[in-house]
Design goal:
The structure is a homodimer of 244-residue chains. By secondary structure, chain A is of the alpha+beta class. Chain A folds into two domains: 142 residues, Jelly Rolls, CATH 2.60.120.10; 80 residues, Arc Repressor Mutant, subunit A, CATH 1.10.10.10. The first copy, chain A, is 37% helix and 23% strand. A five-stranded antiparallel beta sheet of chain A has the order 1-2-9-4-7. Chain A has a four-stranded antiparallel beta sheet with strand order 3-8-5-6. In chain A, a hairpin with a 5-residue loop joins strand 5 and strand 6. Chain A is globular. The termini of chain A are far apart. The N terminus of chain A is likely disordered. At the A-B interface, strand 6 and helix 3 of A face strand 6 and helix 3 of B. The structure holds a DNA duplex (30 and 30 nucleotides).
DNA sequence: CGGTTCATTGATTCGCGTCAATGCAGGTGG
DNA sequence: CCACCTGCATTGACGCGAATCAATGAACCG
């Protein structure tokens, strides 16, 4: 493996690879809309980089030099208040897109939750490529639309749902997401810590923990270990998540 | 003026006009990136519609037939939980864009807050036009990026800020928005009701009201009437909004 | 084995929600 | 012109859900 942090504390990728022939997520990423020739051009400007867990990818307000696709692992996007309060905006999984193509500065910070491999494009070069590959821009607009919808759902959650409703919603989203990727819908993986879940749902660690045990005692979920949840009563969880 | 609601309760536009030569918001809307010839094509598929206050524009989950630009008035976007809890996702002002171009169903509901005039495009026809006018799609991607950033800021507010911080943030955003449109930054207009502010900030009417009077007593704002706020101590409000 | 990190659980506090009353402006009809 | 409504905003009293503070457990690791 490689360097994770330079002598000056500046984060740098752990490792840099190069190709995308056997890319595991190609059909889920921005490349899916391109034919072979176009893909070759895109590959020309892409680099695969690897980050260690907890490595910062970029910080809010800094110049957005790259735009990336997650290939492996999960990435946490968040914003901070000056006193340290944190709001996690999302957890990105393989296939997810990082960095708005057209904005020259990042609106939030990002760090690797697990070991992360990403396919990275220099933002400016990608942008120039839009002129020749309108399909690429179309695809990004599609992705942006999905993100907006997800953000709106999250605003409903943060503004109006109770702790129980938030956690139930969270578990179901993870479960559906896993199913959509061909993974089992039920033992749901939680690659993040309780504090991350809390910061994502606008709750404290303690409330997250208490709500987990409450669900467990009610027979709605099983907690085989800290990072897995079995959904035992999916329908009841769904009712809870919708606020009934 | 025209019909506001048909006999069957189906909402229909109050009035329909036609041109966009003296459009007040052209440079702020999606049209700004087009030259005269392109604009003529776009105009060909556009209609100006007017809605009365409280008229519903569309409902979550329904088919997205149009995509529009607000010309005049303000629009409220929101989501509901089955028991009636409401989260307002945003207030749209002249120049703002309604409806993600690429999604065939609406992810939220919308209604007119005031009298509203909008420039409306049939979604499918607009989409077809993308092929010839890539600049249009580029502009939409830009708009989507701004919306994502705003949504992220709002998630921070809803998940982590206190009532005071939320209201201060809200007033400042409105003030900056007004200034950016060449209006005075200080007596801020509140075209929406207290309950709308509450549903936008994830608070109750009462908390919004109490926080207003708290700010007023502290000399931070003035409340000449129910729908206007004078920002007397902008810097202090800014400190509060950032969480200090 | 002690140290570190994270999760759980309990006791208590507190900010905001809930419930209820009052105020206030605009509109309508007598 | 006034009495009365209606819709909103304000204010107060009280309660609750989640935060805070604090202790204990559990897993992992050098």
């Amino acid at each position: 493996m490689g360097i994770v942090t330079s002598a000056m504390g500046v984060p740098v990728p752990m490792a840099i690879e190069s190709h995308c022939d056997e890319c595991a997520i190609r059909e889920a990423s921005i490349c899916e809309v391109l034919d072979a020739a176009q893909l070759a051009r895109l590959r020309g400007i892409s680099t695969v980089v690897t980050y260690a867990p907890n490595a910062p990818l970029f910080e809010e307000g800094s110049e957005a030099q790259h735009v990336s696709n997650v290939i492996e692992g999960t990435v946490t996007l968040y914003k901070l208040l000056p006193d340290g309060r944190r709001q996690i905006l999302g957890f990105l999984y393989p296939g997810d897109f990082v960095g708005l193509a057209l904005d020259p500065t990042y609106g939030c910070s990002a760090e690797a939750t697990t070991v992360v491999r990403m396919c990275r494009f220099p933002r400016e070069r990608l942008e120039k490529m839009f002129k020749d590959l309108p399909a690429l821009e179309h695809r990004l607009l599609e992705i942006a639309g999905n993100e907006i919808k997800a953000a709106q759902e999250q605003m409903l959650l943060l503004g109006r749902k109770t702790a129980r409703e938030r956690l139930a919603s969270f578990l179901l989203v993870l479960s559906r997401r896993a199913a959509a990727r061909g993974r089992p819908a039920s033992p749901v993986d939680l690659p993040m810590r309780r504090s991350d879940i809390g910061d994502y749902l606008g709750l404290t660690i303690e409330t997250v923990s208490r709500t987990f045990t409450q669900f467990k005692k009610a027979g709605l979920i099983g907690l085989p270990n800290q990072s897995q949840v079995t959904l035992l009563q999916r329908e009841i969880l769904e009712t809870i998540a919708e606020g009934n």
